[in-house]
């Protein structure tokens, strides 16, 4: 397995991000601003899909669609529902944990897709009846994709994020991501498309996302994004674009990026973040791993450490997502505990079968509550 941390060379990274975004990379774009192709939402169509796929994979890794929502009243109606949800959730729990900011620093709605749909299905239908979002998702992922969304509202004074890459590997510690072979670091970003819809006019000063075009092509980037030298390079070379209400942005999860600081006195920026997953990133069969884990646990103590680890890997859910981030937040880290984590801890600490079963049941309850 390649030692990705040892392979991180700032000289190579600097050469890569110095790549110019040329008109040949995005011939139907209305403009290229700060290395980012910008498209007119009224002018894109099916013929744009191949170009967008190339932009995300081989080009700068990010593009903006101005006027992605022709129906701004749909944006306003959804914004009103989101603000009601924010008020209700702050009243009930004070605000949830976040991946890259302290709890309560932002107004975050986990699973805003489902919450909007169930709170006001008519508004949801009008909001999601958007051919630009569908085209962008299909351009990178093909049909059968699955969308998830999270609203992020940042008030004046809201601090910037640290530069990072996104889901999946971007939500892991360096030790965790280093366990995955190099080809997974290269392949994982092809299974996800990140994006966002502006729900308000957002000048750069309000903290629009800082972006580093072409950085998604750096193989070692998931590890590099955690290193001070590469974070300094990001801050020196990143760019920001203003967004207007109804604009959309799409980018590779491997692109180095970070929300900026809201230095305004009166602009509250709201973005509905879009995370779309490839249809193929699922198992063929539905497996009741909780029941299997309970059944096999009493037999693990008779095995060698290596044997027990192999059984846990084959039996228990070793990945924390998808989950209900309202009840199963990433508090204390970037991701919740997994079934496999619980099994391994139980074995180390000598739990009996009943204690293990109770822990697994609690884990299942918060995941789907």
Description of the structure:
Strand 2 (36-40), helix 3 and strand 3 (62-66) form a beta-alpha-beta unit. It is built from 15 helices and 10 strands. By secondary structure, it is of the alpha+beta class. The chain folds into 2 domains: 4-277, q2cbj1_9rhob like domain (Jelly Rolls), CATH 2.60.120.620; 289-368. Helix 4 (72-93) crosses helix 6 (121-128).
Q: How many angstroms separate the termini?
A: 38 Å
Task: Determine and state the CATH class of the largest domain.
Answer: Mainly Beta
The name CATH uses for the topology of the largest domain is: Jelly Rolls
Tell me roughly what share of residues is in helical segments.
25-40%
Order of helices and strands: HHEEHEHEHHHEHHEEHHEEEHHHH
DSSP strand tally: 10
Number of alpha- plus pi-helical segments = 15
Mean pLDDT: 92
The rough form would be described as: globular
CATH H-level superfamily of the largest domain: q2cbj1_9rhob like domain
Structural class: alpha+beta
Q: Strand share of the residues? A: 5-15%
The number of distinct structural domains comes to 2
**Biggest sheet architecture:** 8 strands, mixed
What order do the strands of the largest sheet run in, or round the barrel if closed?
1-2-3-8-6-10-5-4
Determine Rg (CA atoms, Å): 21 Å
Low-confidence regions:
none
């Amino acid at each position: 397995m390649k030692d990705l941390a040892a392979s991180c060379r700032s000289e190579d990274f600097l050469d890569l991000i110095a790549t110019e975004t040329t008109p040949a990379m995005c011939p139907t774009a209305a403009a290229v601003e700060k290395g980012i192709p910008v498209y007119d939402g009224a002018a894109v169509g099916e013929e744009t899909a191949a170009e967008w796929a190339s932009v995300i994979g081989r080009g700068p890794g990010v593009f903006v669609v101005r006027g992605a929502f022709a129906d701004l009243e749909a944006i306003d109606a959804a914004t009103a529902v989101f603000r009601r949800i924010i008020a209700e959730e702050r009243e009930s729990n004070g605000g949830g944990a976040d991946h890259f900011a302290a709890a309560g620093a932002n107004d975050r709605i986990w699973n805003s897709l489902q919450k909007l749909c169930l709170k006001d299905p008519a508004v949801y239908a009008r909001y999601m009846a958007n051919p630009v979002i569908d085209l962008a998702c299909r351009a990178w992922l093909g049909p059968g994709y699955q969308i998830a969304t999270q609203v992020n509202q940042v008030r004046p004074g809201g601090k910037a994020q640290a530069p990072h890459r996104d889901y999946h590997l971007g939500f892991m510690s360096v030790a965790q991501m280093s366990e995955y072979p190099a080809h997974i670091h290269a392949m994982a970003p092809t299974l996800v498309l990140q994006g966002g819809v502006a729900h308000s006019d957002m000048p750069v000063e309000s903290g629009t996302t800082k972006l580093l075009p072409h950085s998604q092509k750096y193989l070692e980037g998931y590890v590099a994004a955690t290193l001070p030298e590469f974070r300094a390079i990001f801050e020196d070379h990143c760019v920001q674009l203003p967004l207007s209400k109804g604009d959309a942005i799409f980018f590779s999860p491997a692109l180095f990026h970070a929300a900026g600081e809201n230095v305004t006195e009166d602009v509250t920026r709201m973005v509905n973040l879009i995370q779309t997953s490839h249809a193929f990133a699922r198992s063929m069969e539905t497996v009741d791993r909780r029941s299997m884990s309970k059944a096999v646990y009493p037999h693990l103590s008779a095995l060698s450490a290596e044997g027990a680890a192999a059984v846990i890997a084959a039996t228990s859910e070793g990945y924390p997502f998808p989950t209900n981030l309202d009840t199963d937040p990433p508090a204390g880290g970037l991701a919740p505990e997994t079934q496999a984590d619980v099994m391994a801890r139980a074995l180390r600490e000598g739990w009996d079968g009943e204690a293990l079963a109770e822990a697994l049941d609690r884990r299942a309850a918060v995941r789907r509550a």
